[in-house]
From TrEMBL:
Record keyword Lyase present: yes
TM region(s), chain numbering: none
PANTHER family: CELL DIVISION PROTEIN FTSA-RELATED, ETHANOLAMINE AMMONIA-LYASE REACTIVASE EUTA
Keyword ATP-binding (UniProt): no
Gene Ontology MF, one: lyase activity
InterPro entries, alphabetized: ATPase_NBD, EutA, FtsA/MreB
SUPFAM superfamilies documented for this protein: Actin-like ATPase domain
Any Pfam family matching the protein: EutA
Protein name: Ethanolamine utilization protein, possible chaperonin protecting lyase from inhibition
Species this chain originates from: Priestia megaterium (strain WSH-002) (Bacillus megaterium)
Amino acid sequence: MLQKWITSIGLDIGTSTTKLIVSKLLIANQQNQFTLPGCQIIDRQVTYASSIYTTPMLNEVEIDVQRLTVLLEQEYKNAEISLDQVEAGAVIITGETARKQNAETIVHYLAEHAGDFVVATAGADLEGILAAKGSGAIQHSAETNAVIANIDVGGGTANIALCQNGKVIETFTLHVGGRLIRLNSDGFVTYVSPYLTEFLKNNSLILREGEKATFEKLSSICQLLAEETVNYVRALIQTSSLLVSPHTRSSIQPETIMISGGVGAMMEKQKPKTVREVAVHGDIGPLLAYQFQSIHVSQAAETTRATVIGAGMQNTEVSGSTVYIKSKKTAAEKHSDYRNTCTARGGVESAAVSRKSSSVMHAGFNYFQRRRSSRCYCFIAFSLLQL
């Protein structure tokens, strides 16, 4: 059985923080005389974890590409790796950062300058799944046969994944995060997210920029945010003004709730007792963490780095066998590669492959045809997976 170690990275550019991990993945070719080639990742080792940085911003709507590039270059040096050594992994732009004006520009820049891996702005579903993988929630559900909910609470959103038997069965996202309200050390509010407007109004609360917030008001807001999140996760309420996108909550109730993300990491700290202690990071993160802790939910095994570990270690698949058509290429094409292209997945139950695969492929082809510009080629890859 042929084996090979490859270098993988995970980079998470989030609302509040940016962090990177480097890992080694052991790939084994498990082909035998009766099967097609089949490669699997049989071992994973984290070899380097960066410091946790504040995500560099030019202003409220733009990410600072130059500072982000300097940060990435320095971390590559610290990890003692070069671009040509990076063979797998992912850069994920998450939370409110994915909605910034130049997020797409950064995606394309990183695809060209950061190594051979996937770069994406993560939608709510993907971010929740990656965090559930990295936090250990999916593995825990496989080991216990219980329904496990992982709530990854960052700066701008709480991404929730319900897991059962080692699979994610439901995902949704709420506007709940440590940086939705920002304040200085004297308690003066410098920012209130517009996503909280309806929620605060529904709870007869008013918080304005420039206002000097009291500890009691901040505590009430954080308590209500934590309670609404957990009640929705437990299916005790069926709707919420905090939902990022419309979602019909199933009746499935988790037996265990785990908290990951930056807010999850702060759950082990003591309760802040003053506004100054709340605002140690310039936001309400510490107080929100305490309110989640008081509801008696569990801190995940991996918190702050859950998403980046999910992206860099737990979400890489290796192609086993490939069917291709060899054609004549121009000189330029021979020296070009294709990266940063779109992919789409169509789930097909194994028993229905022969019946449905044709329609899935047809739908996939139509999807890419719609996205293709007149000056671009369209590359399509289909994978029939046992779900």
